[in-house]
Amino acid sequence: MTKMPAQTPNFFDGTHLGGQNAAFPDYEKMFHPKKIAILGVSLEGGSVGLGNGLLLALQAMGYEGEIFPVNPRGGTFAGLNILRNVEDIPGEIDFAIIAVAARMVPESLDACRKKGAAGAEIISSGFSELGTPEGISLERKIQDVAAKGIRVIGPNCFGIYCPKSGLTFMPSPDLSRESGTVAFLSQSGGMASDFASTGKWMGIRFSKVVSFGNGADLREIEFLQYLGDDPETHVISMYVEGIKNGESFFQTIKSVARKKPVIVYKGGLSEAGQRAVVSHTASMGGSRVIWPAILRQVHAIQVQDMQEMAQASLAFSLLPERVFQGVSVIGGGGALGVAACDVAESFGIGIPSFSSDLKASIETLLPKPGSSAANPVDVANPYVQPQILKEVLRNGASDERIDLQIMISLFYHYKAIARAMGKSVAAVTPYPELADVIAGVAKETNKPVIVVLPNPKRGLEDLDVVEMMERARQLFLEKGIPVFDEIKDAFRGIGHVNTYYAYKSAAHE
Amino acid sequence: MTKMPAQTPNFFDGTHLGGQNAAFPDYEKMFHPKKIAILGVSLEGGSVGLGNGLLLALQAMGYEGEIFPVNPRGGTFAGLNILRNVEDIPGEIDFAIIAVAARMVPESLDACRKKGAAGAEIISSGFSELGTPEGISLERKIQDVAAKGIRVIGPNCFGIYCPKSGLTFMPSPDLSRESGTVAFLSQSGGMASDFASTGKWMGIRFSKVVSFGNGADLREIEFLQYLGDDPETHVISMYVEGIKNGESFFQTIKSVARKKPVIVYKGGLSEAGQRAVVSHTASMGGSRVIWPAILRQVHAIQVQDMQEMAQASLAFSLLPERVFQGVSVIGGGGALGVAACDVAESFGIGIPSFSSDLKASIETLLPKPGSSAANPVDVANPYVQPQILKEVLRNGASDERIDLQIMISLFYHYKAIARAMGKSVAAVTPYPELADVIAGVAKETNKPVIVVLPNPKRGLEDLDVVEMMERARQLFLEKGIPVFDEIKDAFRGIGHVNTYYAYKSAAHE
After folding, report:
1. How far apart are CA B97 and CA B35, in angstroms?
2. Which of B45, B30, B65, B38 lies closest to B170 in space, CA to CA?
3. Is the pLDDT of residue A388 over 80?
4. B218 within 8 A of B242, measured Cβ to Cβ
């Protein structure tokens, strides 16, 4: 195994943070390992631990490398021989997943280091998060081993999810294998798992997701630096509770944000929330006031919850890299158009009124009475056909003040049509045609079209509507069309994109 | 037909608004009619209009009264003879649904008046909303007929949805027949329909829902007064775009809010939004500044979108009428507990830390390591059994600072269990047991428990999870337990309840 030589501690590899670990991380081996050891896999029929769950998850994900389960008691599990010692693995390993009891972790980690592993994720908990002298001492021992030349993710974490290599989390083995441009960093394993699951159906595709838990060795600064230079990653989202070194953290964000958007969800801004966050040595006080101000200064995109983080990630990954000043809104009903205007204004986005000529041209396309050809365009009823909507979109795009168009489709109303015709709702809803039309117009006009699919019909008797809506969402996404549930979500996403690219273009002037 | 005698115009029946209509509305006949005429039903095989749709919707809802379809061309539709004239209906009618072409509306309305109808809903559009002299003149004619003694809802509206009587909307014929305590007033038909649909699965049960469109005769003030005195209605929600008489409107809210909560969603607060709102004679300017201030003064509960309106309506209708100062949060993971604290603080709700005795008592119940017995209680994994959660809830309720408990259940993680066991996710998820446990503890401790059911698994391959979650929601609701999707939604609902009952108790001191 080759490692990069130890370097002078510097700001960028995190070695200034105590200098325990002089080895520059071999991230390639950690994220795309060809040979993995899993320590803490119980034999068939025994109690099923985290190690077993992770092994099954890797197999279910179709991880193509070699997996070597390890347990001193030996046996077999999931068709694999369990080796008694790490040393019994033939040749060197690239990466290790450690799921043994806390007190066994330091020596297990050292065995993996000796086997040539570039890194290890320690899933086990029972360390500094307990606040006990024993837990804190065990975590120090992890750091001591790490300093000898193996980089550590965790402990008390979910580790790595990397669609390209097939590394994944427990307890969410069914994440997407489709790779994308969004990276996600999280102290919380639950948040990492939930965000990866949410991304799957929302259309966010990930380059790398890392849950680093206690962050005994590698943590936010190191990963930010790595992802900042990672060509696969175009957007970085992160969930932060406490940070170790505030100044370095914000400086790192500032430097990375010059290259790509950094979306930050800070948990624990309240007094009770800070109490709920496991205390870290240097976590920042006075947060609700200080954090937003600093994040603004370093040009991070601050979000308030996981949903907003997902919406921002989707918008950044699917929209072209520019500012969208003027937007047209088509479809929905009158009230949704009114709501669109209200939220657009709150994000500083304009919905310019169409000229009388343009209005006249759109008016000829719409059913009467009940429609309105101004911007927003109220198409009067939810059954207006895609070919007509295509012409409305073409007209909207012809206004040079329009940078982006939003189509609100009330597909749930097709349930009434389906009932009247005795057909399934999926069969009567023209979402495939609309997807073609929208993809075509977006390409032809070079102005992106976002689709909003609200659904007030989510009950047990409307699961056919829920399913049809998800089919529609997937089809739109396959054609590169961003989809949001609510008009507010779409504008919030656009608003974040605008904030970032306004900064970028100002910085380059 | 008997009507109450004409009265001196006064503030409360809206006759001061021009005095066109001197008849005090016979709301009982309008909301619970035994005999309805539907004008504008095309015969079988002809073009299917709104009248036909409404007739089918009434039949699907199981409306028990008599329906008389009317069309000069006669024929039959949906098993009913279409009468050629309103006069051909035997005896008097209580209510009329008018769906004929705009120019035919005034004389149709007059025919219904002569037939004894207390009121009519005019579904047709093509009136003042067009802004044309013809449309405005036709709407004046409606007002002239109304002044002779028939009260009008509309035109350009969806009319009445009343679960008890079976009156319903197009195009949402499948609303709930279960009656409840929430009333909803809306200018927008789309909003009325969407809100009624949303309420169906969210657990909001309605007394009356009215979409009044242009509001040529009856509108916000009259309905607010009526609902303020309606014993079936305990909570009033409303969607407002423009209002006719600001001072009376706010005075009415103030007077009604002394009796029951009035939730107001004002659309069109932005400049573009005001443009999108059909202009009304006296709609208020400078709205984004003025409206929130006045709504606060009159003790209305102001919400920003339909989702928040639904969450507030659910909280008001299912929670006891008091202020909840201290809340405990149980379940979820660490990050959700942190999020709970952050949102709680932003709504002025406390999450008091448990005493060391209470913590010690809860600690003995939880799996280790990974759990935390402080408030919020992190139960460490999503598979902790309901019987254990029951004891945690009992412990939480024993703290006298706790007024309400929130249980965050991550049921979606049972998908992994279901797969491992080769069973369906519904079969392995213990939501029925948890529903029993929670209902029992809430009753025993006299402190409500709210359930939060986040679901990051909503894709096509997880529709089994979506279905299980909806089954869980319905079961919790049947036992009187409020359910929200996200922790933020729950706290926002509680926050609105607190604001209102803090005012009520201050007002009564």
Report:
1. 11
2. B38
3. yes
4. no
Q: Provide mean pLDDT across the span A168-183.
A: 89
For an interface test with B, which of A338, A363, A455, A483 has the most B Cβ atoms less than 10 Å from its Cβ? A338
Residue in chain B lying closest to A368 (CA):
B126
**Cα-based angle A414, A419, A422 (whole degrees, multiple of 5):** 120
pLDDT at B14: 37
Concatenated DSSP letters of A274-296: HHHSPP-TT--SSHHHHHHHHHH
Q: Which residue from B190, B370, B459 is facing A125, i.e. has the nearest CB? A: B370
Residue A36 backbone dihedrals phi, psi, to 5 degrees: -120, 140
- What local confidence, expressed as pLDDT, does residue A334 receive? 81
Chain A residues in contact with B382 by the CB 8 A cut-off are 171
* C-alpha to C-alpha distance for B416 and A373, rounded to whole angstroms: 50
User: Which residue among B267, B369, B474 places its CB closest to the CB of A335?
Assistant: B267
| Interface pTM, i.e. ipTM | 0.92
Which residues in chain B touch residue A374, judged by CB atoms under 8 angstroms apart?
275-276
Distance from CA of A53 to the nearest CA of B (A): 9
Tokens, residue A255: 């430097």
Read off the tokens for A57. 């998850």
CA angle A212, A124, A229 (to 5 degrees): 20
Question: Which chain B residue is nearest to residue A371, measuring alpha carbons?
Answer: B130
The C-alpha of B509 sits at a distance from chain A's nearest C-alpha, in angstroms, of 31
**Are residues B197 and A268, on separate chains, in Cβ contact within 8 Å?**
no
* A406 contacts in chain B (CB < 8 Å): none
Residues 6+ apart with CB under 8 A from A412: A454, A455, A456, A457, A462, A465, A469, B197
The CB density around residue B310, as the number of other CB atoms within 10 Å, is: 27
- Cα–Cα nearest to B128, from B242, B247, B50: B242
Beta strands in B192-306 (DSSP E): 206-211, 235-240, 262-266, 301-303
Q: What are residue B183's DSSP bridge partners? A: B236
Specify whether the backbone of B293 is left (phi greater than 0), alpha (psi in -120 to 50) or beta: alpha
Residues of chain A found within 8 Å of residue B332, distances taken between Cβ atoms: 190
Burial of B274 (0-12, 13-18, 19+ CB in 10 A): buried
Indicate yes or no: CB of A276 within 8 angstroms of CB of B102.
no
Question: Residues of A with CB below 8 A from B197's CB?
Answer: 412, 456-457
Q: Given an 8 Å threshold on Cβ–Cβ distance, is B474 in contact with A458?
A: no
Distance, CA of B358 to CA of B364 (rounded, Å) = 10
Q: How far apart are CA A388 and CA A365, in angstroms?
A: 7
CA distance A224 to A481: 28
Q: Are A359 and A338 in contact (CB under 8 A)?
A: no
Residues in chain B closer than 8 A to A339 (CB atoms): 267, 273, 305-306
Q: Which two tokens stand for residue B492?
A: 């926002």
For B261-281, what is each residue's pLDDT tens digit? Answer: 999 999 988 877 777 774 333
At A311, which helix (H) or strand (E)?
helix A306-318
Cα A48 to the chain's mean position, in Å?
A: 29
Model pTM score: 0.93
* Inter-residue contact B421 to B464 (CB < 8 Å): no
In which residue ranges of chain B is pLDDT below 50? 1-20, 278-283, 285-286
Instruction: Round to whole Å and give the CA distance between A150 and A141.
Output: 13
Min distance B8 CA to chain A CA atoms (Å): 36
Instruction: Using the CB atoms, write b or e for B88-101: b if 16+ within 10 Å.
Output: ebeeebbbbbbbbe
Distance CA B329, CA B393 (A): 9
Find the closest chain B residue to A200 by CA distance: B459
